[in-house]
Structure formats: structure tokens, C-alpha cells
Amino acid sequence: MQRALIVTCSLAFMFWLGCQIYDLQKERISLTREYRGVQQEYDELAQDNQKMREKMEYLSEPRNLEKELRAKFNYVHPWEELIIVVPKDGEAE
What residues does each domain of the chain span? Predict the structure, then answer.
């Protein structure tokens, strides 16, 4: 009788322990997936950050800043004249 009780308790404990291990494994897999997603997002943001730093460094030079302003906003100095050249029909650009 006592031996059957010990075996039953041992089996119940092993079942409970197996359930706990299973739950922990599921949680570990879930956290691993979440970590990979966060790591990917971090990598993308780090790349964006690097590109922004390079752009800031480029635009910190006055000549480069002026060049970008001229290109984006068709900026000209008051003493300059803007000439737009349009190719004739059939000419390669």
C-alpha cells in the first residue's frame, strides 16, 4: 500500500514537472521569436541612424547644403538667371 502511494506520488510529481518544463519551453520559444523581431527592428533603426548621420555630416558642409537647396527648391541667387533646357522631340536625354 505504501509502495503504491509512493509510486503514485512520484508519477504525479513527474507529470507536474513535465508540464512545467513544457510551459517553460513554450515561453522560451515565444521569447526567442519576440527577441528576433526586436533585434531585426533594432538593426533597421541602426541602419537608418547611420544613414542620417552620414546625411548630417554631408549637409554640414556649406557647399553641399547649398547644392541640395538648389536641387530641391530650384534656388538661385538674385544675380543668377535660371535657364531650363528642354530637348527637342526625338532627341535623347
Answer: 2-73
